[in-house]
Backbone:
């Protein structure tokens, strides 16, 4: 009788690995989890070079200990592979998920290309998490497979818009999220909803200050559960103005929030579907948001975002597939 492989989910992006671990636990499968704050120091280095080096000691020791207890490691983000391949680290077979900027930007950057490609080449299996990464991921590794940014649907609250009408921008304000198009949307939306709705966003990313200047009320960074509660009380959510969505948008859709976004989204490579959202030009998107505030429940029902997103982005249905992969790699 073969024993279950000991799996370590190493590092994380947008809590995707944590979502996988929690979904597996509910299925009776235990995967270990080493989050980013336990993988490497997250604070600025001390000025003293000896202290700067010394602060890595507990992290290196923790990594070595957790790797020694694992049969298979699932590494999240390309540059994290170097941390399991440092001198003195137990060698373990690994699966790699490319989470976005690693393959979208760093793989094309001479400074990082060789490192990312080595990480891809050395993996037993490679996944990519975003629809816009398909071409690059498969150029780097022809058998790279789509594994979406998974959501822990069981942890999400039910959508229950309350209070004054609220439009919530749900992604960070940076180039990867189409910040220039977002700011154009902000300017027009704040004019159209002045005195009618509260337009709020996350104080996150280099474009946040400009969005605030244009009229968005910024929310300080919240603990995850409090953020979900805030999301569940919004009337309309605004996703990133790019040709793909990320975890935040899929969480909003899984909650049932009607979502709007400038532009159009790429289809999923597995079933060819796209997120059912209000979309189009800046003006078209603003018009749809304003109309949705009259009856957000009707708009949510018409779009069917939750019915589309839950079976495609809930982590639970992907657990058996991942479990089978880990068993094959470990030989158990």
Residues:
């Amino acid at each position: 009788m073969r024993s279950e492989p000991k799996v370590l989910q190493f590092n994380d992006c947008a809590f995707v690995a944590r979502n996988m671990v929690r979904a597996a636990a509910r299925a009776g499968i235990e995967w270990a989890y080493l989050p980013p704050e336990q993988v490497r120091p997250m604070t600025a280095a001390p000025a003293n070079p000896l202290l700067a080096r010394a602060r890595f000691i507990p992290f290196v020791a923790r990594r070595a200990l957790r790797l020694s207890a694992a049969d298979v490691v699932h590494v999240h983000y390309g540059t994290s592979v170097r941390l399991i391949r440092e001198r003195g680290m137990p060698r373990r077979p690994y699966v790699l998920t490319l989470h976005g900027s690693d393959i979208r930007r760093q793989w094309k950057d001479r400074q990082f290309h060789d490192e990312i490609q080595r990480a891809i080449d050395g993996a037993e299996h490679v996944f990519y998490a975003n629809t816009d990464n398909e071409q690059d991921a498969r150029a780097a590794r022809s058998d790279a497979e789509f594994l979406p940014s998974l959501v822990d649907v069981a942890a999400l609250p039910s959508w229950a818009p309350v209070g004054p009408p609220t439009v919530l921008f749900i992604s960070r304000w940076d180039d990867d999220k189409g910040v220039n198009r977002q700011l154009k949307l902000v300017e027009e939306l704040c004019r159209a909803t002045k005195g009618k709705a509260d337009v709020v966003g996350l104080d996150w990313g280099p474009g946040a200050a400009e969005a605030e200047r244009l009229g968005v009320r910024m929310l300080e960074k919240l603990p995850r559960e409090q953020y979900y509660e805030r999301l569940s009380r919004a009337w309309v959510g605004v996703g990133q103005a790019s040709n793909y969505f990320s975890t935040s948008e899929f969480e909003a859709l899984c909650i049932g929030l009607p979502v709007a976004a400038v532009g159009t989204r790429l289809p999923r490579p597995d079933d060819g579907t796209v997120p059912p959202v209000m979309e189009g030009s800046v003006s078209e998107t603003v018009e749809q948001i304003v109309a949705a505030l009259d009856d957000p429940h009707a708009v949510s029902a018409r779009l069917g975002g939750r019915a589309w997103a839950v079976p495609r982005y809930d982590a639970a249905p992907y657990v058996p597939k991942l479990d089978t992969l880990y068993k094959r790699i470990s030989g158990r």
Observations:
- The mean pLDDT is 95.
- The first strand starts at residue 7 and ends at 10.
